[in-house]
Amino acid sequence: MTTDALIEHQHAATCKNCGATTAGNFCHQCGQATHLHVPSAREFLHEFMAHYVAIEGKLWNSLKLLLFKPGLLSREYIEGRRVRYVEPLRLYLSFSIIFFAMMKLSGVDIINVGGRTDAPAAISAPAGTQPPQTGESAEFLKVRADTVAWLGKRNPAVAERAARFLDLPEAQRKETAKRVFYSYTPYAIFLMMPVFALYLKLLYLGKGRRYGEHFLFALHSNAFAFLMLSLFIAADGWNFVRFVLLTWLLFYLPTAMRRVYGGGRAMTALRWIVLMFLHLVTLVSFVVTAVLSGLLL
Fold it and tell me: By the 8 A CB rule, do 240 and 275 touch?
């Protein structure tokens, strides 16, 4: 080995990152490795696998608990056993990205904007808002006119954007709405996590749980939901498998709530019903707001 190679692979006496004096494989101040050399392609690949596929077993440990032991992964984190598992935020983001990618590739018709009939009818609209006759249904033209008129009284600029969008051909409207849906909905759902955790905090007042514990549980339970929905999409044509997945998704959350928070079955079931109602109302509100904002603002 050449002198340059020896220098390249030796342990640095001073950390190149923070300047602290080091002894050993890692800097005691910032944690950077002291074994310095330009990484090879193999090392880059190993680092990628280690961090994003958890080749050391973190992913499989996490999946085993997440799938088959409802709530246990959250309890492990709360009780301090964390290094063996994938971080909750990374787990949530990974499965949410997979879900939305699969939903987009599957061609599911998420949003149906407008409709056509064989016998269109002309609908009178306020001056300046009369749409072109494009063969749209009478119901759609009526809604279009009322919507533009209502928006025009509150925000003319938004009303103009709405009119332009609604005047697009039906196929183009649907394509635009889908593009906006897939662009904005993941952010809206992610922003719901603090709200989901807040609902848990309110439902378990007096239990001595910190908000961070509820947020952790929210990430894990929603990561599981995204994973189940992804498997549901993948199981197209396998009706029995889909039935099993939906059944497990239905019973998973109350089971996880009992394992993490304790309490009797009846009280847990009541909390679960309230949580699901609040969550669905919030989910629809966030998603609709996000999509409309993307289309009109």
Answer: no
